């Protein structure tokens, strides 16, 4: 491995103005070229190899991290310019707190400074339209670092829709644990009781009967006053499917069931509690001339919820929890699924990073290069291969459909 | 000021704890590295007056993109050929000849072996049906035999669809037959099971089991599928939610250790080594909780299960130095 000193001659050549200009032109060109094809929406990096880089070049560990940060800025430029929406980086794991106190403190200081730089020179992220988000467990982080994090998040919050996720004090198992815990907490909140609903069942049955019976009843004056009511009411009574384009299929099927039960007068009064009193008179009820779909879910859910109303508190059904529920409780909620994960320095492990997110389609790439050496030139083959595979898969899907069409 | 000088200056500043330069100075230094600021409307208009130039530029980009991808297709063909040749030569150099002694010899120099090996197999979609399933069974049998030869006590086989779980007795028969062809009469005892399958077939109870089990080894095979991945965590969440709703558990009791214990007991622990036999690394819905520190091995452009791949995985595992916390 060449020492820092030896590589200076090379970098003197590479950084002479004409060569530098040429390189930057080529970079621009390549970035433009790459963005012609499909681009991963969400890319994650494990920035591994800073310490080894420092050791190989005979410099201090912390300086290795510092050069690693420069590599990060370079790669962020490539990502955001080609059109990547979300970049997630693994900055500091919970396990890293077990390193020597000296290194942890130095890393914390560096993180504070770098974060301040990223957000303070807000040009940097603003020009890519990226905002910072810090994912991880806040309890373990010292208050001064937390303050720096909050400031950075605050400063960049108005930037565009690209996101830079910094995983700090993060492990994926911890993320999954908190997602599960949050889901449990959310599902353990009792549902708001269904008493304060502005309609009463007995009243509705009463109205229906009054519609069907020719002899005038108490609601007759209002019906005479307003002609439209028969029309909004009839579609969901006589033809429940008529309103099904506004409601989902479940609602419309159970609507027919509940409609048939309410037509028999006997069960309706028994399920209804005496909430008739706070409600206004019949004319007030029909006066707003609500669209036909409006009274319908209310009336439907009150009859559906009536069996459970015997228990004092009702909870959301745990069976309705799905993988999507947990995904929505991860730190990366609402972001596009992870398309590409790159880990440098030849270590072939995920090391507790993005375990949940590395699911079906995520392509994982392990590279031999150390992170401070990582640049467009190492990243280009990875991206091109990703594009190549993505294009081939799209072609296969297209071709498969065609073949099926031919009846092969 | 050249970039080199800039970098020097910047590092000096960084070394002195960012006291040397003011914020403005640092911004000045960074300027050449960041893209031009989004121009105001006045400056953007000239750009709009050059639609031809933009069009040409995008055409050039598209042209180079196509050239690049054509070149890449060529490159990838070459790379695939290279890897196939490499794979074949490994296969010739290291063939097991169905001799456990040879296999043992191949791994003799290794300083460590995985306690729990995991593999991802794929049911080939073009040969779905009987042929694909037979191939899959045969792969399982081969891998488990190699594991017994090497001395790996635990093997978990991930197959996305979970079709293998329906054929546990058949799988056991095929594995035992394969072992006979390697070991002769003294077959090790094999146990095949799957999570949440109540009736698991235990090799100990089968007819050939009385042949000295202690000397010829023991292998436990676990068949897992996509439903043991994310859905297990979902199921655990459902159970925890129900308990919490009934007041048997406070949400604060949900800890990493609790989940880890439950997941480990109901599915499996963390494997030490995960071997992929596919052309690229994709986990295909492999249980997320368990791959935390698992060494992932794969041979680029590989297709199909081969002894040489298995051996290379073990060699690469022995070389890798395990460090916790990166």
From TrEMBL, chain A:
Upper taxonomic lineage: Eukaryota, Fungi, Dikarya, Ascomycota, Pezizomycotina
Source organism of this protein record: Heterodermia speciosa
Any one of the GO BP annotations: polyprenol biosynthetic process
Disordered, as annotated region: 208-320
Name under which the protein is recorded: Cis-prenyltransferase
CDD domains for the chain: Cis_IPPS
Signal peptide: none
Positions with biased composition (Low complexity): 241-278, 297-320
Family according to the record: Belongs to the UPP synthase family.
Gene3D superfamilies linked to this entry: Decaprenyl diphosphate synthase-like
Residue ranges of the TM segments: none
InterPro entries: UPP_synth-like (IPR001441), UPP_synth-like_CS (IPR018520), UPP_synth-like_sf (IPR036424)
Keywords: Transferase
Gene Ontology terms for molecular function: ditrans,polycis-polyprenyl diphosphate synthase [(2E,6E)-farnesyl diphosphate specific] activity
Ranges in a coiled coil: none
GO cellular component term, pick one: lipid droplet
From TrEMBL, chain B:
Source organism superkingdom: Eukaryota
Keyword Magnesium recorded: yes
Main location: endoplasmic reticulum
Protein name: ditrans,polycis-polyprenyl diphosphate synthase [(2E,6E)-farnesyldiphosphate specific]
EC number: 2.5.1.87
EC top class, as a word: transferase
Biological source species: Heterodermia speciosa
Chemical reaction(s) catalysed: n isopentenyl diphosphate + (2E,6E)-farnesyl diphosphate = a di-trans,poly-cis-polyprenyl diphosphate + n diphosphate
Family designation: Belongs to the UPP synthase family.
Gene Ontology cellular component annotations, sorted alphabetically: dehydrodolichyl diphosphate synthase complex; endoplasmic reticulum membrane
Keywords: Endoplasmic reticulum, Magnesium, Membrane, Transferase, Transmembrane, Transmembrane helix
Coiled-coil zones: none
Membrane keyword on record: yes
């Amino acid at each position: 491995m060449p020492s820092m000193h030896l590589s200076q001659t090379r970098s003197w050549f590479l950084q002479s103005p004409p060569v530098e200009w040429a390189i930057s032109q080529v970079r621009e060109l390549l970035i433009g070229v790459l963005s012609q094809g499909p681009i991963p929406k969400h890319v994650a990096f494990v920035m591994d190899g800073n310490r080894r880089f420092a050791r190989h070049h005979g410099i201090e560990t912390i300086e290795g991290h510092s050069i690693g940060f420069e590599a990060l800025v370079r790669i962020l430029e490539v990502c955001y310019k080609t059109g990547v929406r979300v970049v997630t980086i693994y900055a500091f794991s919970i396990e890293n707190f077990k390193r020597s106190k000296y290194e942890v403190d130095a890393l914390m200081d560096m993180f504070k400074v770098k974060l301040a730089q990223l957000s303070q020179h807000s040009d940097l992220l603003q020009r890519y339209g990226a905002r910072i988000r810090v994912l991880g467990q806040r309890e373990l982080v010292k208050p001064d670092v937390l303050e720096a994090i909050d400031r950075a998040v605050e400063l960049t919050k108005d930037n565009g829709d690209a996101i830079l996720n910094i995983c700090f004090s993060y492990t994926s198992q911890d993320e999954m644990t908190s997602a599960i815990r949050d889901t449990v907490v959310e599902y353990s909140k009792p549902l708001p009781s269904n008493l304060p609903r502005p309609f009463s069942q007995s009243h509705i049955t009463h109205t229906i009967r009054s519609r069907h019976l020719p002899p005038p009843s108490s609601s007759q004056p209002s019906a005479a006053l307003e002609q439209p009511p028969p029309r909004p009411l009839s579609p969901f009574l006589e033809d429940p499917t008529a309103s099904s384009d506004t409601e989902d299929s479940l609602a419309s099927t159970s609507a027919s069931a509940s409609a048939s039960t309410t037509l028999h007068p006997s069960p309706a009064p028994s399920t209804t509690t005496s909430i008739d009193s706070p409600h206004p008179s019949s004319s007030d009820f029909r006066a707003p001339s609500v669209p036909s779909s409006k009274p319908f879910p209310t009336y439907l859910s009150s009859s559906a919820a009536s069996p459970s109303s015997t228990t004092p508190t009702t909870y959301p059904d745990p069976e309705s929890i799905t993988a999507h529920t947990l995904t929505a409780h991860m730190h990366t909620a609402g972001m596009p699924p992870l398309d590409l994960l790159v880990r440098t320095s030849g270590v072939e492990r995920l090391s507790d990073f993005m375990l949940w997110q590395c699911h079906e389609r995520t392509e994982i790439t392990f590279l031999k290069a150390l992170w401070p050496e990582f640049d467009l030139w190492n990243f280009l083959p990875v991206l091109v291969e990703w594009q190549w595979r993505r294009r081939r898969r799209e072609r296969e899907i297209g071709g498969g459909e065609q073949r099926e069409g031919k009846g092969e | 000021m050249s970039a080199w000088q800039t970098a020097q200056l910047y590092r000096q500043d960084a070394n002195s704890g960012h006291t040397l330069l003011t914020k403005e100075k640092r911004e000045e230094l960074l300027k050449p590295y960041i893209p031009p600021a989004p121009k105001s409307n006045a400056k953007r208009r000239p750009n709009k007056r050059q639609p031809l130039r933009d069009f040409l530029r995008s055409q050039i980009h598209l042209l180079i993109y196509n050239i690049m991808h054509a070149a890449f297709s060529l490159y990838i063909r070459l790379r695939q050929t290279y890897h196939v040749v490499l794979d074949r030569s490994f296969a010739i150099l290291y063939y097991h000849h169905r001799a456990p002694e040879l296999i043992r010899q191949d791994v003799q120099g290794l300083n460590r072996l995985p306690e729990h090996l995991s593999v991802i197999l794929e049911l080939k979609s073009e040969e779905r049906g009987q042929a694909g399933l037979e191939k899959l069974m045969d792969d399982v049998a081969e891998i488990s035999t190699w594991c017994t030869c090497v001395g790996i006590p635990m093997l978990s086989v991930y197959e996305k669809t979970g079709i293998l779980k329906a054929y546990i007795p058949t799988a056991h028969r095929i594995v035992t037959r394969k072992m006979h062809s390697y070991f002769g009469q003294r077959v090790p005892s094999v146990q095949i099971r799957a999570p949440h399958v109540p009736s698991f077939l235990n090799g100990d109870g089968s007819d050939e089991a009385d042949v000295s089990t202690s000397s010829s080894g023991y292998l436990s095979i676990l068949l897992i599928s996509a439903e043991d991945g994310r859905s297990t965590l979902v199921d655990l969440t459902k159970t925890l939610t129900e308990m919490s709703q009934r007041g048997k558990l406070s949400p604060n009791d949900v800890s990493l250790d609790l989940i880890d214990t439950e997941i480990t007991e109901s599915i499996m622990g963390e494997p030490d080594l995960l071997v992929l036999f596919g052309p690229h690394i994709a986990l295909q819905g492999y249980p997320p909780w368990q791959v935390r520190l698992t060494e992932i091995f794969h041979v680029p452009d590989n297709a199909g299960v081969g002894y040489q791949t298995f051996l290379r995985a073990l060699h690469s595992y022995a070389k890798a130095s395990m460090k916790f916390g990166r």
